[in-house]
Design the sequence.
């Protein structure tokens, strides 16, 4: 009887050891998720989350399985967008005064992914570590910051300078929807613009339209001038052809030489020019 109970205790201890070895939930800290990979089964089908029970037999084999941890906290990326509006220097040079169509915006963008989306990125071989995930976040934040700068520049002007802006929940939801495909299921948690130098966009549009109108008028004048020049060249070419013909006539008929020396020679040439 004692031997029986001893065997039961040994079996229970073995079962408990097996259970705890395969119990991977405790390997994931709060605020993190994990992706389990193993030599035998590849990538586990679900992300591991703290507080959610998960048992994986792959952990029973020594050195067979590994858990890759990823932070679930929103990733904050500092971005600076600066430059010149398209052809801004050209348009500014056509205006009186010191027009400046350059811009610079400093902002902080926070992005986050759910455990399921992190698992999808890992499974698609787009990330394999936290550093990879951070690089992914930064590349997406760059896309978002460019769009935010474009929106701000077109909404504001130098007349109403922007000092600080924190996007509302509705604006964040709209921005997340706009970049849904690029973010691959991610969410924009916050956008905060800390400083901004913004050109007068209305003045820029006015200068752009004015320059476009000037360019069209200039093109029309050039076409008109080219047409007149072509006509002159055609007339000169026609005159040379007529002179060549007259020279050939003089060679064939030397008696016409006296006609060439007469006062009516210019009238004859004009008559040849208008002849069809």
Sequence:
């Amino acid at each position: 009887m004692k031997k029986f109970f001893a065997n039961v205790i040994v079996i229970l201890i073995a079962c408990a050891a097996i259970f705890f070895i395969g119990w991977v939930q405790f390997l994931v800290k709060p605020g993190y998720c994990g992706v389990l990979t193993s030599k035998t089964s590849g990538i586990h089908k679900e992300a591991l989350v703290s507080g959610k029970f998960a048992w994986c037999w792959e952990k029973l084999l020594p050195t067979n399985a590994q858990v890759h941890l990823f932070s679930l906290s929103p990733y904050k990326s500092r971005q600076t967008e600066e430059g010149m509006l398209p052809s801004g220097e050209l348009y500014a040079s056509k205006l009186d005064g010191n027009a400046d169509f350059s811009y610079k915006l400093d902002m902080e963008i926070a992005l986050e992914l759910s455990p399921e989306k992190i698992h999808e990125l890992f499974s698609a071989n787009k990330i394999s570590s936290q550093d990879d995930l951070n690089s992914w976040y930064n590349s997406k934040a760059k896309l978002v910051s460019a769009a935010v700068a474009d929106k701000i520049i077109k909404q504001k002007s130098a007349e109403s300078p922007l000092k600080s802006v924190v996007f509302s929940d509705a604006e964040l939801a709209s921005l997340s929807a706009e970049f849904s495909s690029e973010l691959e299921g991610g969410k924009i948690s916050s956008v905060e613009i800390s400083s901004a130098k913004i050109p007068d966009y209305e003045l820029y549009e006015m200068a752009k339209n004015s320059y476009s109108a000037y360019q069209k008028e200039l093109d029309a004048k050039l076409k008109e001038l080219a047409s007149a020049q072509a006509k002159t060249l055609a007339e000169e070419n026609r005159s040379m052809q007529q002179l060549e013909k007259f020279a050939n006539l003089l060679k064939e008929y030397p008696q016409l030489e006296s006609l060439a020396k007469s006062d009516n020679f210019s009238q004859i040439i004009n008559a040849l020019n208008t002849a069809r």
